[in-house]
Model the fold of this input.
Amino acid sequence: MPPLTHGADAVLDELRRLSDARPLRAIDAATLMTERAALCGFPMAGAVSAGGACHILPVRDGVIALNLPRDADWELLPALLEDDQAGASGWAGLAAMAAGHEADMLIDRARLLGLAAARADRMPPAETPMAWMRMAAPAARPLSVGPLVLDLSSLWAGPLCGHLLERCGARVIKVESPGRMDGARRGNAHFYGLLNQGKQCLSLDLADPADRGHLLDLIATADIVIESSRPRALRQWGIDAEQLVANHAGLTWIAISGHGRGAPQEDWIGYGDDAAAAAGMCVAMREAVGELVFAGDAIADPLTGIHAALAAWKGWMAGGGIFAALSLRQVVSHCLHRERARRGDAMRLDLARWHGAGSGQVPLRAIDRPVGAVGEDNGALLCARLPC
Amino acid sequence: MQLKAGTKLHSSVCDTDVMVIKGSGDVALTCGGAEMVIARNGASGDVDPAFASGTAMGKRYQSADGQVELLCIKPGKGTLAIDGVPLEIKAAKALPSSD
Done:
């Protein structure tokens, strides 16, 4: 069993119960959490993440996780380490340089620079459950027509949320910017297809007032919006999530972030492995196997996607008016503390067994709906609104 | 002033703070028409109206020859310039293909 699958399966069970969706029956948490690594042939995670971009780095007074998934991230290393040669000799040179610095100083600077970094040697205490988690299961709503979902997100957590809603019977429109498409399109094609099949594809340039108008029109008719942008990125285009939920009574807004909303953390970026480290996942692994290592493949991403889908579905069933902020770190923290409290030693044994055995075999899911190109449905979706 | 990767610089006439991403050596870097400083010295002046188009949080600014690059870590009203030539905003980084 991959780490933390028990809680994730319980969330999927509730989504199945509420949606009564047949296509969801074939989906289990272990598959969702390991299918990317299986498709990409990623090795077992250790002090390097399965995907290879996130490393555990011992520093002067602790241990950090630093994630550099973009080539452009490497251009920022001289500023991070105040050394023109930083990054010139790959991870080995970087580790040697980082060893001389203090953890909090490196993390603060990384956050200013827009790099994903977190302490890997701490497990923050359990937090008060997020409001959306305490949301009561709503009374059943007649499900003759599924919700309309606008998926503005990219990479893994948000698109997985949109995918699960699509499996529940939602109509999903994936919105991308023409100059900045979902980066996952350049990754493994089967994995991209699994998470984005059956979504209509719309391309809108938010720098263009007309396109911004189209987006606001669509939001006004949508039941659910999924986004994973930093709030300042949407606000610069006049899109204020909380205000939109206040103005459109039926709307459920799913805001996915690395570390949560509010200053200063809403400006920090986070990906699946470093956010899991921030929540204490590497410490949980140390308790199980004796060393600080990563658990799973970007484990915060699939866990957040699964939780976000349930929050979205519940919000829609309750008639909207819900703003659900989910952070990768907070979701992992919630799952980790829940599983420690309920399973304790059994969880430690699972983690040790999983670490020793590798991810094992998961059945490869097939793609059964079309996968759209960027903006493929612009004609159909925009002609209905414009004389053309 | 001497630039070095990682140095934080402050505007002396507005709220702008930047971090040096790239660049070295002696450069006449101004914000709002006044030279930027390493430590805020309490001095205050006015933003030169000719250099008042402002800085935006998280944006990267570069010189035309690409030799100097700065990251805005606190926005303000002044325009960043070297030798009187305003710096250009660099396009946002592409999204990664995976994490």
Notes: Chain A has a mean pLDDT of 93. Residues 20-43+145-265+294-383 of chain A form a domain with the Rossmann fold fold (CATH 3.40.50.10540). The CA atoms of residues 30 and 136 of chain A lie 26 Å apart. The first strand of chain A starts at residue 54 and ends at 59.
